[in-house]
Amino acid sequence: MASYSINDLEKITGIKAHTIRIWEKRYDVVHPDRTPTNIRYYSDADLVRLLNISTLNRYGFRISEIVALPHGELTQKISELSLSGSDFESQINSLILSMLNLDEDLFEKVFSASVLKIGFEKTITQILYPLLERIGMFWQIGTINPGQEHFISNLIRQKIIVAIDAQRTQLSASAKSFLLYLPENEPHELGLLFLHFLLKRDGNKSYYLGQNVPFEALVEICAKVQVDYLITYLISSFSKKEIPFYLSKLSESFPEKKIFITGLQARKIDFALPKNICLFNTSVELLEKLKAKVD
Question: What's the pTM value of the predicted model, to 2 decimals?
């Protein structure tokens, strides 16, 4: 059973810790236990209830109305709002619920409704990217079951692969060539996979190598195919001390290529980068660069 501090709940749900305390005292919405040292901690059930309450509250329901709803009616309203609304935060909350409860049906309903309303690309950038950021919070807190992350990640992965398979775009006259890969011990491929979709859709040549690519294999591939750019994510594959050495090796091995890097670990880089390496704080920043004229 996972346990959360009140600050953890604030980060995940977006509800201020002060508000949670008021709701707890006035409406009995959550039921924290206490550690032997008398520190409150909350359960998955508390988190799920707060996610539901947060969603309804954002749609104008008063907290006093929400707490009076029977469980079945509350979940029914959540489902209806997730499908009909344009509030991204509520849809993200619903997808978190689908992950926690291993509810594929809820995922399919929310995803399909969003694609119909705002399209595939915006569903990825406006809903699924923030969802993955939120899942990263679970990892930092240490409360996520790896099976839950694999469940939601594989559902997203299936959607992106279907979109990639549907691409039949001819190379454009100004097509660039990209090689996309993840370093050894880096399994988080969803962001990179989505970039592969966008590059192919826009008429570029994209070689997708995927996860856990040994450096020697990367060198061999680049000797066989001519590419203009390398793109990779640094999320969890290196220690802080290893990153400068890896980037230096990457730059020296491919001096004629532009190298784009993003990911959680990339954001924490605080040293000067080689000239041919370009750092992006978020996947969205990298997407905007790729949409513009790449240089």
Answer: 0.77
